[in-house]
Amino acid sequence: MQYKDALYQQLLEDQRFVRWATGEAPQDDEHWKNWAREDSSRLDTMELARQTLLAIQGGPVDLSQADIDYQIQRALYTAKQREMQTRIPVGREHRLARFNWVAAASLLFLLGFGWYGYLNRTTLTRSLSVKKTQPTTDPLLVSNRLQCVANTDRPARHVLLPDGSSVVLYKNSQVSYAFAFNGPRREVYLSGEAFFEVTKDPAKPFFVYADGLVTKVLGTSFTVKAHQQAEQVIVVVRTGKVAVFAQADPTADAIRTNLELTGLVLTPNQQATFERTNAHLSRTETDAPTGQPSFEFRATPAADVFAALEKAYGVTIRFDRDVMAHCSLSATLGDEPLQQKLQWICTILEATYQVKDQQISITGKPCQ
């Protein structure tokens, strides 16, 4: 961690790197590529520094929100650790101490980006990356890197991610993600509550960032609750295994880059609770998650199967009831995403489906 922080600062103060990163010295491409190849651990830090400089310059930004959050959380963690090492008398001074470490974190963060004045560029703000490219009546907002889906009025809304994973987004919740998961990680940012069914891909871990807590999976189903007014962030596992860790944890970088599940590992019917006030993380046993239906069908009419999917995922399924009146399904579906469930159901029923927004159209033949 200290090595990467020092390298990050060093790059931002290196005039040759600054000129190359901001596009003023393209002739140095090979130099910096070779420099990064000498030590594979340099690549991520170099890219973060480059994107930061581009943001300050006002150029195109591909900086992950997780990278921004990492810098903030790292500053908070460092300041908190320093405050805890100092003995503070009980009483009014305790309140002052809490203010001091928060203020110190802000100062650390600003010092971390202290080269801002040196570079004499425009202020770095989140507005650099936010643009509305959809009608204002649509809750889907698009930035130059992330698209954001909000559910403000429905009990549940289904969101299909670029890798085929499913998100059931509950009311008053929001999820953001990249248009395509082209990098080594699949990253999603959640505010509120959602149920995830993640497409399995061990080579490309899936991350959910939720108010200071990170959930890492390779392919499974789980619920994350991170409401803004709540004092806790909760993760409940339905199937498979997930790992959770605090975003400010000094080992967070190592956990993120490791293809294995490390950190606090949860299995089915286990729950992780993250206390926002003190960053305490604990694991407990819990009952089977409620609110998530079991898709076990035994000679179940197609209409009832589709109704179960509608209720679970907050979608509308249209089909010809007369044509499929005698169709039924016997199958047990697990934690696979909605799209995969639809593929299996349609294969059994010899039907096809199309998805548009929250509406699914199924076309099939009469069943004998």
TrEMBL record:
The chain crosses the membrane at residues 99-118. Pfam families: FecR, FecR_C. Keywords: Membrane, Plasmid, Transmembrane, Transmembrane helix. It comes from the Bacteria. InterPro entries: FecR (IPR006860), FecR_C (IPR032508), Ferrdict_sens_TM (IPR012373). Residues 156-242 form the FecR protein domain. Residues 295-362 form the Protein FecR C-terminal domain. GO terms for molecular function: sigma factor antagonist activity. PANTHER family: PERIPLASMIC SIGNAL SENSOR AND SIGMA FACTOR ACTIVATOR FECR-RELATED, PROTEIN FECR. This is FecR family protein. It comes from Spirosoma rhododendri. The lineage of its organism: Bacteria, Pseudomonadati, Bacteroidota, Cytophagia, Cytophagales.
